[in-house]
């Protein structure tokens, strides 16, 4: 933790989920950009994610509940908070306790949004930038356009996606995306890269494949259960975490308009493409086995995702985005080195 006091005249930014995958990478990038007056918020358990906090420079840390209680009580009103990057959530797509998902992913976000709106109305703009999800698009049959008018028609396939959809709808009804410091909801697609080592079964397939190849010399992919997709040709929009972070931090600019935005590459690639990229980065020939998809997943499995990124480009984001091959080639040496947190 930096010795800089949280009462610094530098703008203050809050990052929730700060020990997690995207949250810790975002805090690291903020440090790189010279921002150290950060308030980090999380509730790390026994999964080792606390290590992501170690290299970071920040002003203060709070448990997720303590932070929300303090925010509501007005204890942070004089810190000059300019933005809350709300990346904390229950992110498991297999979580069955929907009440728990709604409490953590909907109710918590709603309270943050209300605080930011009140600050902005009082002449001290504070923007909420929060993680929505590509899971809100369900099976993709209704498209992947981040058009506000289409949000009510989306049909998520799991409780996690529904919890994110519910807040998107709430924000739209309240006009939260409009005006100065309008809220920003980011629909992250399939993100992979450094700082995900703690995620267990929720890690990206790049990390899982790397481990399988080291242990067995080969990888396993789910068979297709649709005649229009061959085994391994199910498709995803795979995005390196540092591109996800840069797209998120675009909204530090108060001139960037609020709204819902897709965060992806705009390209759909197959699982076979990904596996070939991992084997190539490891200097090995591909060896791939296809296994049956568990029954519990078959009705909830997405066979195709691709972010339409026209809107975020129109909002001024003009940086190049890593291709799958570039991102995997950059990530594999990190995995080879033992998955230490960024900045270690």
What report would you give on this structure?
The structure is a single chain. The protein is an alpha/beta fold and 344 residues long. It has a domain at 12-192 and 238-266 and 306-323: Rossmann fold (3-Layer(aba) Sandwich), CATH 3.40.50.720. Helices cover 34% and strands 15% of the residues. The protein contains ten helices and 13 strands. The chain has helices spanning 21-32, 64-73, 98-121, 159-174, 205-216, 241-249, 271-281, 295-298, 310-314, 324-336; strands at residues 12-16, 38-42, 60-63, 81-86, 127-131, 184-188, 190-192, 219-222, 235-236, 238-240, 259-263, 269-270, 288-291. The protein has a seven-stranded parallel beta sheet, sandwiched between helices. Strands 7-10 form a two-stranded parallel ribbon. Helix 3 links the parallel strand 4 and strand 5. The radius of gyration is 20 Å and the shape is globular. The model is unreliable at 2-7 (pLDDT under 50).
Please render the helix and strand layout as text.
Blueprint: E1 12-16, H1 21-32, E2 38-42, E3 60-63, H2 64-73, E4 81-86, H3 98-121, E5 127-131, H4 159-174, E6 184-188, E7 190-192, H5 205-216, E8 219-222, E9 235-236, E10 238-240, H6 241-249, E11 259-263, E12 269-270, H7 271-281, E13 288-291, H8 295-298, H9 310-314, H10 324-336
Parallel strand pairs: 1-2, 1-4, 2-3, 4-5, 5-6, 6-11, 7-10, 8-13
Antiparallel strand pairs: 9-12
Helix pairs in contact: 1-6, 3-4, 5-7, 7-10
């Amino acid at each position: 933790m930096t010795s800089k006091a949280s009462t610094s005249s530098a703008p203050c930014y809050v990052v929730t989920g700060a020990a997690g995958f995207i949250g810790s990478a975002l805090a690291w990038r903020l440090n790189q950009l010279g921002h150290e007056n950060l308030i980090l918020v999380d509730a790390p358990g026994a999964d080792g994610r606390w290590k992501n906090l170690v290299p970071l420079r920040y002003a203060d840390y709070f448990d997720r509940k303590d932070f929300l209680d303090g925010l509501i009580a007005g204890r942070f009103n004089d810190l000059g908070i300019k933005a809350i990057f709300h990346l904390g959530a229950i992110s498991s797509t297999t979580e069955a306790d929907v009440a728990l998902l709604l409490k953590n992913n909907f109710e918590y976000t709603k309270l943050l949004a209300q605080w930011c709106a009140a600050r902005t109305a009082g002449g001290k703009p504070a923007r909420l930038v929060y993680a929505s999800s590509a899971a809100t698009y369900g099976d993709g049959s209704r498209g992947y356009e981040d058009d506000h008018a289409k949000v009510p028609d989306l049909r998520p396939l799991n409780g996690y996606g529904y919890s994110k959809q519910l807040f998107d709808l709430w924000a739209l009804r309240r006009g939260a995306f409009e005006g100065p410091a309008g809220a920003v909801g980011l629909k992250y697609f399939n993100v992979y890269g450094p700082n995900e080592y703690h995620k267990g079964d929720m890690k990206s397939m790049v990390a899982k494949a790397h481990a399988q190849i080291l242990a067995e010399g080969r990888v396993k992919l789910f068979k297709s259960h649709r005649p229009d997709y061959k085994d391994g040709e199910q498709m995803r929009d795979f995005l390196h975490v540092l591109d996800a972070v840069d797209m998120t931090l675009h909204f530090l600019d108060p001139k960037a308009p609020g709204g819902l935005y897709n965060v992806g590459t705009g390209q759909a690639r197959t699982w076979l493409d990904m596996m070939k990229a991992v084997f190539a980065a490891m200097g090995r020939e591909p060896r791939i086995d296809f296994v049956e998809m568990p029954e519990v997943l078959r009705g909830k499995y997405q066979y195709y995702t691709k972010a339409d990124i026209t809107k975020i480009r129109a909002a001024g984001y003009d940086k190049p985005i890593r291709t799958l091959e570039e991102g995997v080639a950059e990530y594999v040496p990190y995995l080879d080195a033992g998955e230490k947190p960024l900045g270690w």
